[in-house]
Amino acid sequence: MKATHNPSITAPVTPADLLRMAALYLRRHGWHQGTYYNALFPADHPTPPACAAGAIGIACAGHRVEHFSQLDGDTLADYLAALAAFVDYLDDFHPLFLVDEDGFVIDEHTSPYSWNDDPTRTAEQVVTALESAADEWDRLHTTGGENR
Asked: What InterPro entries does its record include (predicted)?
C-alpha cells in the first residue's frame, strides 16, 4: 500500500444495522400503530412516532418516507433486505398468519404490518423484536464479526 492510498474504514451497512437503527429510532421518537407515522405530527415533522416498517424506512433513507416506492434503488434494496430479515425473524419466533373464513392461511409469512398493529402489541415488544431480528441476522450471516 502506498502512503497516499486511503483505504476505506467503513463497512457496508447490513440489515442487522438497519434493524438496530430502527429500534433506536422507536426508543427515541416513539412507536405507532395503524400507519407508518403518527398523523398527529405534520408531514414536515422529521421524527414522528413510527411503526416498525416506518422506522426501518427512516433508518434506510435518513428521513421520513411515506411509502417504500419513494426510495431510490440502493435505498429500496436496503429497506427490502431489512424488512425481509424482520419478516424471517417474525416467522420463526412470533408467527402471526392471516387465515380466511375457511381456515386457510392467506399468506405464508407473518405480515410486519399486522404484527405491529395487533391491539395487544406493545412498544417494548416491537423494539425487542427489531433488536432480536438484528441479532438473528448477525448469527446467520457473520462469523467472528466478519460477513460470511
From this structure: DUF6197
DSSP state of 145: T
Q: Which domain holds residue 63?
A: 15-142
Overall domain count for the chain: 1
Query: For 48-91, what is each residue's pLDDT tens digit?
Result: 999 999 999 999 999 998 888 889 999 999 999 999 999 999 99
1 in a domain, yes or no?
no
All residue ranges of the chain with pLDDT < 50 are none
Q: Cβ(57)–Cβ(68) under 8 Å?
A: yes
Q: Please list, in sequence order, all residues whose beta carbon lies within 8 angstroms of the beta carbon of residue 98, skipping any fewer than 6 positions away.
A: 105, 106, 107, 111, 114
Distance CA 67, CA 50 (A): 13
